[in-house]
Amino acid sequence: QPITTDMATLTQEIDKYAKDKKLEIETLIVREEYRKEFLGNVSHELKTPLFTVQGYLETLLDGALHDEKVNEKYLIRANKGLERLIYIVQDLDMITKLEVGDLQLNIMEFDIVELIESVFDLLEMKAAKKKISLIFDIDYNEPIMVTADKERIQQVLSNLIVNSIKYGEDKGTTEVSIENLIKNKVIVRVTDNGEGISKANLPRLFERFYRVDKSGSRKVGGSGLGLSIVKHIIEAHDEKIYVESELGVGSEFSFTLEKTK
Length: 261
Ligand code: ADP
What we know:
Helix content is 52%, strand content 18%. By secondary structure, it is α+β, with helices and mostly antiparallel strands.
């Protein structure tokens, strides 16, 4: 009898050890896959604008430089490609810092109403190009003080509002509102009546490089990094981010912030 019990215990322990090891190995495999996918994505994202720039510069060197009708146009396009490369590298830099936990939050008290107004000012031209109205929906134009990293929250607002313009309908609207939540929290919502996102795409939206329209001839440019940066920043603040969306109706991204006591 005692031997059987011991054997049983031993078997159990071996089983548990084997299970733990298996889990450890599985985790390593998943990480390795993730790393490979990430590197693949990075080089793919960089290649497209690099080849664009190279293409235009080569055409210019092959003679187009002296063709008054096209030379400026090609230079502008090459420059646009470089701009895109810079954006991607800056986003990658940010993601890396956020993922290694290297990003120090610079927490301060600031007026979120004023910050939203300043982001609106910066993006007014971009919205005007698509005749999109930026609407700030607040009851009273009084300061609402929050405690957070102002520069990072500005980036969150900017990424969300830029998306709502990029994926918004011509002549549509982007509305930002702030609401009080329980326990010294406010929730900031960015709502658009744009193309919306299907249920199938919602769960992966915040992943690095995830884009709904993966076709080579995408209508709008982007790296698929914006939303994952947004999520990282909000989570670094121990706050929450939500998305609700319906295809053809519009999207609402919202995040919480701590109100200054
Ligand atoms: P990017 O805009 O560079 O592709 P993001 O990470 O900001 O990357 O967004 C990921 C994807 O989510 C976008 O490619 C787009 O398909 C979808 N998306 C984001 N915001 C919106 C929005 N407001 N309306 C519709 N689709 C959106």
